[in-house]
Amino acid sequence: MTTWTSDELRKIESADELHIACLRPNGTLRSPVTIWVVRHGDDFYVRSVNGPGSGWFCGVEQRHEGHIGAGGVEKDVDFVDADHDIDDEIDDAYRAKYSYFPTGLNHILSPEARSTTIKLVPHPASS
Questions:
Q1: Closest by alpha carbon to 87, among 64, 119, 60?
Q2: CB hemisphere CA count around 30 (13 angstroms)
Q3: How many Å apart are CA 83 and CA 107, to the nearest integer?
Q4: What is the pLDDT of residues 14-72, one digit of tens each?
């Protein structure tokens, strides 16, 4: 499995926002959406603040591939369903990083958003 470099880990972790675009069925990228990203260990996780009905999340569920940009890092990624055994730890990462925006934080910690937790894995072709 492909991993993040230490430089990518540092840059993406320090970014407040991430731009995410999933692949359409025809292989072209959808328009990017701005979302929050958190680091847990050497992995990055994202959630849909609007739950599983969000347009970008539905696109992710179709192809499980796309592109992200954050902190000066541009990377093709695979979207992998997260291990929900670490949801509480992901919640803690969101609290630590985004405590300055309590309203948004409440939404990203909701059961609906938690159900959409996705791990971002660098796509082998872009490493």
A1: 119
A2: 21
A3: 20
A4: 999 999 999 998 999 999 999 999 999 999 999 999 999 999 999 999 999 999 999 99
Calpha distance 57→80 (Å, rounded): 12
Tokens for 69, please give them. Answer: 């940009």
Calculate the alpha carbon distances from 44 to 24, 26, 64 in Å.
22, 26, 15
Distance CA 6, CA 64 (A): 24
Domains of the chain: 6-123 (2.30.110.10)
d(C-alpha 116, C-alpha 75), whole Å: 21
Phi, psi of 36 (to 5 degrees): -90, 150
State the pTM of this model: 0.94
